[in-house]
């Protein structure tokens, strides 16, 4: 039990910190996404001149918003779930089923992480159709943004989801072993005042 609790403590601290950072980065991404969309609506309907970049910029921000908040939602049980079976099962079976489902989630995330790495590598070969980097670090001129900057959200989000799934798995094993009273509840970074 003490080994599991020792493994859980740094993982909990890391996931809490990541959730806190993700909260603020996601707020910025959401605000920018709304501003970009409103700018496009104004330009398209008021000025009758649609800009070429806001659609892709909003997609870029939405991908990053998803990549940053998916681990937080997973950790807090915020994904859509059918839990009616869990409500009628005895607690021992509920814990065993939760461990089984978390193990499957970890396996799926492991495969997805591998796929995301190859997807990220291929993203350096393709450029955005409308988004540009302010400057090229090597040539000094403006370049179109590689799509890898979008795909990086998937790469990072899956790895952060793996950390959240591992934390949840360890928590369920501790609960199954009878140490649930030694666990603190997972606090939502979205509900914290600071």
Number of domains: 1
The number of E-state strands comes to 2
Strand and helix order: HHHHEEH
Low-pLDDT segments, ≥5 res: none
Number of helices: 5
Write the layout of secondary structure elements.
Blueprint: H1 2-46, H2 54-75, H3 84-88, H4 91-123, E1 127-133, E2 143-146, H5 148-176
Antiparallel strand pairs: 1-2
Helix pairs in contact: 1-2, 1-5, 2-5, 4-5
Structure description:
The protein is mainly α and 194 residues long. The chain has one domain (2-182). 69% of the residues lie in helices and 6% in strands. Strands 1-2 form a two-stranded antiparallel ribbon. Helix 1 packs antiparallel against helix 5. The longest helix is centred in the first third of the chain and has 45 residues, at 2-46. The radius of gyration is 21 Å and the shape is elongated. The two termini are 32 Å apart.
Looking at this protein, list some descriptive labels.
single chain, 194 residues, 2 strands, 5 helices
Structure in a nutshell:
The chain has 194 residues and is mainly α. It has one domain. The protein has helices at 2-46, 54-75, 84-88, 91-123, 148-176; strands at 127-133, 143-146.
């Amino acid at each position: 039990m003490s080994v599991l609790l020792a493994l859980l403590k740094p993982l909990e601290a890391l996931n809490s910190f990541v959730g806190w950072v993700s909260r603020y980065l996601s707020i910025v991404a959401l605000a920018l996404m709304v501003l970009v969309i409103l700018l496009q609506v104004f330009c398209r309907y008021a000025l009758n001149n649609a800009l070429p970049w806001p659609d892709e910029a909003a997609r870029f921000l939405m991908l990053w918003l998803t990549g940053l908040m998916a681990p937080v939602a997973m950790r807090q049980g915020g994904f859509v779930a059918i839990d009616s079976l869990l409500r009628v099962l005895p607690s021992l079976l509920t814990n065993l089923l939760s461990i089984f489902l978390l193990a499957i989630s970890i396996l799926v995330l492991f495969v997805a992480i591998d796929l995301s790495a190859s997807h990220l590598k291929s993203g350096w070969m393709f450029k955005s159709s409308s988004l540009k980097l302010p400057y090229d670090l090597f040539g000094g001129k403006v370049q179109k943004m590689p799509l890898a900057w979008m795909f990086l959200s998937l790469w990072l989000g899956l790895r952060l989801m793996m950390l959240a799934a591992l934390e949840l798995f360890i928590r369920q094993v501790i609960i199954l072993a009878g140490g649930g009273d030694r666990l603190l509840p997972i606090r939502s970074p979205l509900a914290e005042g600071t």
